[in-house]
Amino acid sequence: MYCPESSVILLSTTVLGNVLQPFYFKGGAMSKLSKFEIELPAAPKASKLSLSERDIAMATIYGQLYVLYLRHHSRTSNSTGAEVVLYHLPREGPCKKLHILKLYRTGKFALNVVDNLVVVHHQDTETSLIFDIKLKGEFDGTVTLHQLVLPARSIQPYQIPMAGPTAVTSQFPVPCKLYSSSWIVFQPDIIISASEGYLWNLQVKLEPIVNLLPDKGKLMDFLLQRKDCKMVILSVCSQMLSEPDRGSLGVIATVFDKLNNEYKKYLEAEQSYNMALEIGQSRNNPPPKRPIRTQAVIDQSDIYTHVLSVFTEKKEGPHKFTIAVLMEYIRSLNQFQIAVQHYLYELVIKTLVQHNLFYMLHQFLQYHVLSDSKPLACLLLSLESIYPPAHQLSLDMLKRLSTANDEIVEVLLSKHQVLAALRFIRGIGGHDSISARKFLDAAKQTEDEMLFYTIFRFFEQRNQRLRGNPSFNPGEHCEEHVMYFKQVFGDQALMKPTMS
């Protein structure tokens, strides 16, 4: 038996055929791996071949090569049915029996490996059993016993289209006979129907599994190991926050922790890679291998975009639950020492403001539950009209961030907080020297005509106070803004000079 994926050939030796000798091929050379013995279910009565090729398979599962042995039910033993025994076959060292998959069935079986899952097809019941050796099993000191991950399911029915002339093909397609005795199975995921002349690749659909595994923690453990898991996981997260599938905060916390555990592992791998890259460049070492970002890496932007922002917009649950969920995700990020992105804090603040929970907002800021950042400070400044203390809270935050006054103004203008920027600059007494054009540019970009009017009028009044004339000097380069003002509000709206 040959496994092209791992370039290993397996030979059956001895009279019983249960001593297997693997050989590994690489670059035209062959190396002999450790031979091992397959434990037969019962001592054979006669010295004859007792191990059939159809009961053995080789496959790579989670990057490791395994020999899978289908051990049939023995009437003489106390077994509860057939089992699949997994022998780990390393390149170096002895082969070890590590896993046993309990089938609790007898009859004819066939094996496939799909997306690191062992799929056991059972002909009698016309169902397939799915096992995941990464999930926690029952360890007896030597091997790990695994139960079914999901209830036994049948392969999705397939309709065979009728071939032939147009007149004939208009007939209804014929349903394919599933789990037929004419099926031949090849590793890792191929099924051939010899009688119908079809070859299929077996795939596992993740969406239906969501409803088959009620334990959200176990479901996450399962999904995080799958290749195309991202959107399904995000869908599960959304479901557990909404009726009728709303989970408890404990369950939600467990899910967030499992996601952030994977996220943290990737961040650490990326950090190690960057460090190795820097060291390697300085020493002319070959570049290290960059960590692969799998779909199991679900970062803050994913959760924010697909789960939390949608959840807060729905406003279908009690606001205390909404805030608790947001804080639970932030708690989980902090637990794994992942820097929380400002947009998550902004979501918390906006939710608190929507429900007039200013006291809680003040506490969160006072006790630094929400970490300081410039975008957060800008958001607080914008809340001044509905919560006056927010102005001082934001300025305190900017000062803690050692932000220069000019930079604070730039940050506010970039966030279209033009009035907040003007208030800030007036608060520090710098409003007589600021550039009128910069503020008028920012006001115009907001496309808010009344805001533009307010800012324009402020600078007219400043000009009048400083120079005795509301007009702008040519050096201020505000001609286009004067024209725009006239266009929108008319010449008569311009401020007339007043005698002091």
Automatic annotation (TrEMBL):
Domain Mic1: 226-473
Bilayer-spanning residue ranges: none
Superkingdom classification of source: Eukaryota
UniProt GO cellular component terms: late endosome membrane; lysosomal membrane; Mon1-Ccz1 complex
One example of a Gene Ontology biological process annotation: regulation of autophagy
Pfam families for this protein: RMC1_C
Protein name per the record: Regulator of MON1-CCZ1 complex isoform X1
